[in-house]
Amino acid sequence: MQEIFEILKKDNYWFKDTQKRVGFRRDFYLKKIETTMGNKLIKVLVGQRRVGKSFLLRQIIERLLNSDVKGKNIFYLNKELIDYDEVRDYKDLNKLIKIYLKEMKPKGKVYYFLDEVQEIDGWQKIVNSLAQDHRQSNEVFISGSNSKMLSGELATYLTGRYISFEIFPFSYSEYLKYFQLKNTKKNLINFIQNTGLPEILLVEDEEFKRNYLQSLKDAILLKDIAGRYQIRHVKILERIMDYISDNIGNIFSVDKVSNFLRTKKYKISNNTISSYLKYLSETFLIYEIQRYDLKGKNILDSGKKYYLNDLAFRNFIFSKFDAGLGKHLENIVFLSLRRGGWKVNVGKFDNLEIDFVAEKAGEVKYIQVAYSVADEKVAEREFGNLEKIKDDYEKIVLSLDDVSFGNRNGIKHLEIWKWLARKI
């Protein structure tokens, strides 16, 4: 581990001349994280690979340094770097930390930042030990690219000892701020046609973007899913992702996926398809949302919707942009709601569908998303579905129309780019 420690010196903040790229400051997340600091709770950043978790960790470190925390009191390890392949399990990491403490001799509180921690076998043991060490004042920050960290490992080993933050690709408002753009319909369309992944936002060459996204997709499918679950048929995973990309926002079942795979000459059980969908969700490539019966007040077992974590996968790899702008708009609205901490379901009211039923802290919103409501038949459908719901919760119709058509029976109509720009 001594050789690894020498490499670690280059990636840490122990010497005054050490500088690291911190990238575009994502104040929404930084403010949320900062309000939880100063205690023994483990701070957990989760999200798809390449959404900017490492930059956020470095931004937190930068703020600590600016608040007079000494560099040698910060330990940072990015397990995604090949230099640290030899740090295979929690015992290896413990040895490395002991060398750090012996060599650097930090006085007072120590801050540990462990990036892509799921790559270390038994990481829960060392994280829990650091956070709960009563002999030393520590604060621990970790990041990971698998939601099972929350539903499985963290919930089992660190019950009540952590707080999590889901990190998304750039939102529309972050995109505007990043490029210093005005909020216009044209810029929203450009954003939808592009990507929210920070590393390739400035890249104009589409072939480069395609290669980058192909590499990212391969890393997630091959390493995070196939490697973890010993899956041999990676092509089937790709075909399922292809199907979801072509059907974002559509209600479908496992049977429909099975029928699609048969057209591609693949035979696979429904149970396996369900498992593959779960794995894709765990790595944040896709999001599954359920249907909620607004009359019966219960979740329905039949039919679900899926949305993408970033539309770049549809735009540059799996599908074509011209397959339906309305569904792209739905995807963007869904992600905006999730970023804001809303629990999102599809609403069912008799035989009618409500695109999104969003709930948070006792507040409920009903949202319909359409390309345009200028046509009276479309307006009747979008507003009419919401008018059937006889409660006092907020009801909104979002569209890409150039102007707002005002309110109809208490239902707001808003231009979607203006609504999105008010969100994170």
Short précis:
Helix content is 43%, strand content 20%.
Strand content: 15-25%
Q: Percent helix among the residues?
A: 40-55%
Q: How many DSSP E strands? A: 13
3D shape? globular
What oligomeric arrangement do these chains adopt? single chain
Q: CA-to-CA gap between the ends? A: 42 Å
Radius of gyration: 23 Å
Largest sheet: 8 strands, mixed
Structure write-up:
The chain is of the alpha/beta class and 424 residues long. The chain has two domains: 2-166, P-loop containing nucleotide triphosphate hydrolases (Rossmann fold), CATH 3.40.50; 172-421, no CATH class. Helices cover 43% and strands 20% of the residues. It has helices at residues 2-11, 27-34, 53-66, 90-104, 123-131, 148-157, 172-179, 185-193, 206-229, 234-246, 254-263, 270-282, 312-318, 325-339, 376-387, 416-421; strands at residues 42-46, 74-78, 110-115, 138-144, 162-166, 286-293, 298-308, 343-349, 352-360, 363-370, 394-399, 407-408, 411-415. Strands 7-6-8-9-10-11-13-12 form an eight-stranded mixed sheet, sandwiched between helices. The chain has a five-stranded parallel sheet with strand order 2-3-4-1-5, sandwiched between helices. A hairpin with a 2-residue loop joins β12 and β13 (411-415). The longest helix has 24 residues, at 206-229. 38% of the residues are buried.
